[in-house]
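Following up on my earlier thread - several people asked me to post the actual chain instead of describing it. Fair enough. Here it is, all 205 residues.
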Amino acid sequence: MFAPPFSVSSGIALELLGLGGTPGTSGTPETSGPGSFLEVGCGTGIIAVSAALAGCERVTALDISEPAVRNTVMNAERHGVADRLTVVHSDLFENVPAGRRFDTVYWHSNLVLAPPEYRHKTIHERAYVDPGYRDHRRFLADAPSFLTENGRILLHFSNRGNTARLNAIAAENGREVRELRSLRVHEGDDLVEHVLLEISVAEPS
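Reply from S.P.:
Thanks for posting it. Predicted structure:
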């Protein structure tokens, strides 16, 4: 988990999704108003709670970390949205209730690519390192199964990830990747470009 006060990525995610309260960015269709929202890797729950506060009628938040699940539950209760926010301990979509479909599926991914044989040294590392992009492959393959008829898959990525590899995996799984919006910010000495991507099923050729 990354504590929002000490991680700029949480605020950037809110901006990219239109939940940040900045004029011109709030109220985007994918994150506000009636509908359902599924967040993969919810961490502290800031995105899931913000989506519920923005008007999403049904929000489900997933995380592989049990402390993250507990944190999100507490934040949902603290902000008065526990009645419409369900938190599930899950490795990606593994424990999503059968038959559930969502208008938006969102993941701020563990985008740092490591060699396939790499083994995480800490639990914290798992939040940002994906050996061989195995998690990304699973996400791209499985996410469409959890969409409503006109639902959308959104992926928060950045230039600290391997875009070429992501696009290759998407193509292998019959997916298309489109950039919706981006935001450049200084993180330490680095200028990092964060992007919100939309993933869709490629049309048959």
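The chain has a mean pLDDT of 91. That should answer part of your original question.
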